């Protein structure tokens, strides 16, 4: 867009003269000169819209474009890897859409923010109960951000400069953590994983390791021996950061019971829709003695001057509130609405409901894994205990197979070769309560048909090449 091309449009707030004044202050002659450093191949082009459309015509055109999307809810989806399709009870959007929640912002003034502060307090309590930890913050931007902040927190607590992440930790968590760690002058190392889980015996820790990061269940769905890794870490003076999946904690022993020092995760599976990948909320919990290095904010319960129960921001160790050099993080806010969705979800479903939900996910995942591995050319990649996700290996590259399944209305999983080149023929499959037994049977049936068809095509090509 040029500085004059749309000057006749009344919706734009600046006049030509105002734009020229701003450009002059910046030190450039035109808007084009301002963005000249951006490669042309990554610049957004003109919108492909016919000129002169009325509002009605524009809405109809955009609606027709949107109709080309085929959301996961209209297909049989077996996608996981950090974002999963789970049922969101009607009570969740009903509560979080209330204006007092949907429009609330940072509770700077506790006397007029008691509702928001109570929500934060109860969210913190729920996270502690889930993870087995002693204190939690008001939430983070998302799981990967929480993981990165946990790494920096560990470095501050130990006064060490090296962070080790297990290779079976979600790639998005690792990438964000690596970016944070390196930008702060710390060393980032990834521990190789060959058998599907991080082997404590292979961990090589020196006196400069601040933290080891593992996922439980990990990115491949396998269950890591958190207790053994915690012992190795603590024997060398390092802290253990555990990335968790909240639904699994309804059935699995919480990482706090295994000696974890900091626990992080993402609220997406609990009451938050997929929504094209976001937004979500990250949760973060730790031991009580580490609380002053916990980033973000914490809500606490106290009494007012009349002796009535009241809530307040107890700790605010972020750069907006204290001297920047003393701040634990530049995290500016928490994902309050998404955190509330998680709180409503957990409160509604309750401990027993969460356990039942986790059991359904686990049982159906094992059922599907058994069905798929009955097919010739399909194997279970890792012979380790797993929760609701698992990795299957095929006897051929998986990209074409997944495309064929998609044509049949099945999103078969994640092609792991994109993040693990050594797993070029592997698919990460996730199963939740949203996948009925009939869907599981349909997946097995269609995968068998696809593999048979592909084998037949390959044999036909071979016969033609020998003629």
Written account of the structure:
- This protein has 467 residues and is of the alpha/beta class.
- It folds into 3 domains: 46 residues, no CATH class; 118 residues, Aspartate Aminotransferase, domain 1 (Alpha-Beta Complex); 256 residues, 3-Layer(aba) Sandwich (Aspartate Aminotransferase, domain 2).
- It has 12 helices and 15 strands.
- The strands form 4 sheets. The chain has a 7-stranded mixed beta sheet, sandwiched between helices. A 4-stranded antiparallel beta sheet has the order 11-12-15-14, with helices on one face.
- Strand 3, helix 8 and strand 4 form a beta-alpha-beta unit.
- Helix 6 packs parallel to helix 10, helix 7 packs across helix 8 and helix 10 crosses helix 12.
- The longest helix has 37 residues.
- The protein is globular and about 70 Å long.
- The mean pLDDT is 90.
Task: Please write out the topology.
Layout: H1 16-26, H2 31-34, H3 55-66, E1 76-77, H4 91-96, H5 99-102, H6 114-131, E2 135-136, H7 143-158, E3 162-166, H8 171-183, E4 187-191, E5 209-216, H9 226-235, E6 239-244, E7 262-266, E8 282-286, E9 297-303, E10 309-316, H10 336-372, E11 378-380, E12 389-394, H11 399-407, E13 410-411, E14 414-415, E15 426-430, H12 437-466
Parallel strand pairs: 1-13, 3-4, 3-5, 5-6, 6-7
Antiparallel strand pairs: 2-8, 7-8, 9-10, 11-12, 12-15, 14-15
Helix pairs in contact: 6-10, 7-8, 10-12
What is the compact description of this entry?
The chain has 467 residues and is an alpha/beta fold. It has 12 helices and 15 strands. The chain folds into 3 domains: 1-46, no CATH class; 73-83 and 351-457, Aspartate Aminotransferase, domain 1, CATH 3.90.1150.10; 91-346, Aspartate Aminotransferase, domain 2, CATH 3.40.640.
């Amino acid at each position: 867009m040029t500085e004059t091309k749309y000057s006749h449009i009344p919706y734009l707030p600046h006049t030509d003269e105002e734009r020229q004044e701003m450009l002059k202050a910046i030190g450039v002659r035109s808007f084009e000169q301002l963005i000249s450093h951006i490669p042309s191949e990554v610049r957004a082009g003109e919108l492909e819209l016919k000129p002169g459309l009325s509002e009605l015509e524009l809405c109809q055109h955009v609606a027709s474009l949107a109709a080309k999307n085929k959301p996961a809810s209209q297909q049989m989806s077996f996608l996981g890897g950090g974002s999963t399709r789970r049922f969101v009870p009607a009570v969740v959007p009903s509560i979080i859409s209330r204006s007092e929640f949907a429009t609330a912002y940072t509770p700077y003034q506790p006397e007029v923010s008691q509702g928001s502060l109570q929500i934060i307090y109860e969210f913190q309590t729920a996270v502690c109960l889930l993870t087995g930890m002693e204190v939690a913050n008001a939430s983070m931007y998302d799981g990967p951000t929480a993981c990165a902040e946990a790494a920096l927190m560990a470095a501050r607590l130990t006064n060490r400069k090296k962070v080790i992440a297990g290779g079976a930790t979600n790639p998005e968590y690792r990438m964000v953590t690596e970016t944070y760690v390196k930008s702060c002058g710390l060393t980032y190392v990834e521990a190789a994983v060959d058998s599907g889980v991080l082997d404590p015996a292979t961990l090589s820790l020196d006196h400069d390791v601040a933290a080891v990061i593992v996922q439980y269940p990990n990115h491949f769905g396998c269950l890591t021996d958190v207790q053994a890794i915690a012992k190795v870490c603590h024997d060398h003076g390092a802290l253990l950061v555990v990335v968790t999946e909240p639904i699994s904690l309804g059935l699995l022993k919480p990482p706090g019971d295994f000696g974890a020092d900091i626990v992080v995760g993402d609220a997406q599976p609990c009451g938050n829709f997929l929504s094209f990948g976001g937004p979500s909320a990250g949760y973060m919990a730790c031991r009580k003695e580490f609380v002053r290095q916990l980033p973000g904010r914490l809500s606490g319960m106290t009494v007012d001057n009349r002796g009535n129960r009241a809530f307040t921001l107890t700790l605010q160790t972020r750069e907006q509130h204290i001297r920047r050099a003393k701040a634990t993080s530049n995290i500016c806010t928490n994902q309050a609405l998404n955190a509330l969705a998680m709180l409503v979800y957990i409160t509604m479903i309750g401990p027993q409901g969460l356990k039942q939900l986790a059991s359904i996910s686990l049982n159906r995942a094992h059922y599907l894994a058994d069905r798929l591995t009955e097919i010739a050319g399909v194997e279970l990649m890792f012979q380790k205990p797993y929760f609701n996700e698992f990795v299957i290996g095929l006897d051929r590259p998986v990209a074409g197979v997944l495309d064929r399944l998609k044509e049949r209305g099945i999103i078969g999983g994640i092609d792991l070769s994109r993040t693990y080149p050594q797993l070029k023929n592997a698919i990460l499959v996730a199963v939740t309560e949203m996948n009925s037994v009939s869907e599981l049977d349909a997946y097995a049936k269609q995968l068998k048909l696809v593999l048979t068809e592909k084998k037949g095509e390959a044999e036909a090509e071979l016969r033609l090449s020998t003629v």
